[in-house]
Amino acid sequence: MGDRVTGGLDSYDGLGARRLQIQSYSSHGSISLTLWTGITLWCSLETLWSHTPLWWPTLAYSQSPSNLWILQWGQLSGPNTINGLLLLVNGLIAIALTRPQVRPPQLILAAIIIFSGAHGIGGLWSWRLLGDNPTQQVNVGLIQGNIPTKIKSSGTGLNLAINRYVSGYKNLASQGADLIVTPETALTYRWSTLQQERD
Which of 116, 134, 187, 199 has the maximum number of C-beta atoms within 10 A of its C-beta? Predict the structure, then answer.
């Protein structure tokens, strides 16, 4: 009779271990499914919204300009790659905090590894891009006319602004600027109006 009880206990322990493995596997499967479904839905919705007038800036823009290493991932597929990484790391942390039965330390460790890996790879890309070939740099020039808007709205002020910006363009172009930037309120009139006046 003692052998039967022992055998029964051994058998029960074996079943219990199998049940635990099945539950552990299905928990990890549901975590993966939850994460990938959430990431896919979010990125798909952002892509759809970007084609409508109701679109707002993507989650990836929240990393700019302070997190340059993670922004390097945008080279792969634009902001969706960054969105996916942000959602994956935060999703792992959220599941670890809300589902204690699924081994939170492992999920937190996975989030830290993904976070560190993404930043490390982004840092390498950033360093490689900056140090790769100095001859591929872009020289940017900025024109600051320093003309108050009140003055620019008059005929004399407009002519002064045009003269300053044109001479600034010529000066920067002669110095080898590849891109020349002006303030958005540099010239306070419609371009079509200037074209009509010139014609």
Answer: 187
